[in-house]
Amino acid sequence: MLTVNRTSLVAALIFAAITIPVIAIGRKPGPWVNLYNGKDLTGWHTEGSGAKISAWQPEGDTLSCKGKSIGYLSTDKEYGDFELKLEYKSPKGANSGVGIRTPPGKWPSTDGMEIQILDDQDPNFKDANPNTLNGAIYSFVQPKEHPAKRAGAWNSMRILCKGPDIDIWINNVEVIHENLDLHEEKGKGNLPLAKRPRSGLIGLQCHYDPIDFRRIEVRELK
User: What is the pLDDT of residues 19-33, one digit of tens each?
Assistant: First the structure.
């Protein structure tokens, strides 16, 4: 005759009650999608009054900003919970960024979020605010590490957004791990991070400086 310890049975039932809902609401990632097709700017448009579509040049595997322009090359589609990975290469002293969760017609650093790309090693930025250094959530959260390579080298960036949680890696080193709901402080723009949209456009910034991007891929979290 099989006997069951009453305490063990109760513990098992409690564990099941806790874990089953978690499994049920778990988010499976969708397939990786190339945002740049290697030929043209299909799926992209410019955002910002100073942006020029002619400044962006498809060059095989590389998507390059060549012209004197300020603004974003943004996806036509909006993304909420997602994982984005790309590689970027910028010259000495360059300033750029990756916009995420930005409402159409708005600016990432004031209405969505801008993940900063900056040549931190350039002497012109030696006194820069830590919240504006490479990998920062611009004007809000400074990076924990500074793993970017010297100007002219390719760097990888990975951004993971799930609800209020955001994680960022540069060259496979985690630089940001934050819960946006905890950030009620003021930065650039009128809204704190806690009140910013949880869905919007992804954008690549041209900030007067030339910059190259490649291997731009995204997958949505279902």
Answer: 333 323 456 899 999
Read off the pLDDT of residues 142-155 as tens digits, 9 standing for 90 and up. 999 999 999 999 99
DSSP codes joined into one string, the chain: -----HHHHHHHHHHHHHHHHHHHT---B---EES--SSS-TTEEEESTT--GGGEEEETTEEEE-SS-EEEEEEEEEESSEEEEEEEE--TT-EEEEEEEEPTTS-HHHHSEEEEEE-TTSGGGTT--GGGSTT-BTTTB--S---PPPTTS-EEEEEEEETTEEEEEETTEEEEEEEGGG--S--SSSS-GGGS-SSEEEEEEEESS-EEEEEEEEEEB-
Please name which of 192, 178, 200, 183 lies closest in space to residue 74, comparing C-alpha atoms.
Answer: 200
Instruction: Pull the structure tokens for residue 99.
Output: 């916009």
For residues 16 and 190, what is the distance between their CA atoms, to the nearest angstrom? Answer: 44
pTM: 0.87
Structurally, at CATH architecture level, domain 30-220 sits in: Sandwich (2.60)
Sign of CA dihedral 60, 172, 210, 166: positive
Q: Which two tokens stand for residue 124?
A: 């012109």
- Cβ-contact 165, 178 below 8 angstroms: yes
4 pLDDT band, cuts 50/70/90, is: very low
